[in-house]
Fold:
Amino acid sequence: MNTDILTIAIDGPAASGKGTIARAVAAKFGLRHLDTGLLYRAVAARCLQAQADPADPDAATQIAQTLKPADLARSDLRSAETGRMASVVAAHPPVRAALLRWQRDFAVEAPGAVLDGRDIGTVVLPDARAKLFVTAEADVRAARRWRELSQKSDIAYRDVLRDIEERDARDAGRANAPMRQADNAATLNTTEMSIDRAVDEAVRLIDAQLTA
Ligand code: CDP
Structure:
């Protein structure tokens, strides 16, 4: 990889704050940003639209291999159903293989990029110059996600919590590229932090890795 390209990996579970942190870090370092969860969400949304079963590896793989940039602009990507199904399609190795290339191609374009997801520091960009693993207690994450989702739909907190716990288990338990903290990633626990404080802390941890 070209050493002039700056790549930063930010991983963590749902609603840990990694997306907001990744956007802010990208702006701070003048890098592009890719929310890799959107790729899996887009595959899931197209599966649902085609009435294909997201658990069927062949259907999901065919969609992953023909994913287009326009699919990432769909309006249904942030729904709870799409998130749930994203973690189902994400367990199929050929789906991950198809999306791996997309993510790496994005990352290596100058001046570099911040990617956030589940396996960025471990699989997608193992040589990233800085790595963060952002966590928070499940009930706090569920409350954050419920606040977002309840603005658009009528959804119960307990369903959001159950969803998050099921998704954590599926994402951490899959055989292929499970959600896991890279050995050389710094941990950022945002349970008791405002988002502003979490961003400041993230920038501090990344600066420390870049200057080490
Ligand atoms: O926004 P939230 O954290 O809820 O989820 P997301 O980042 O949009 O990811 C949705 C789903 O895609 C996750 O539950 C994972 O199953 C999958 N995903 C993945 O497997 N690998 C990634 N690098 C990013 C997302």
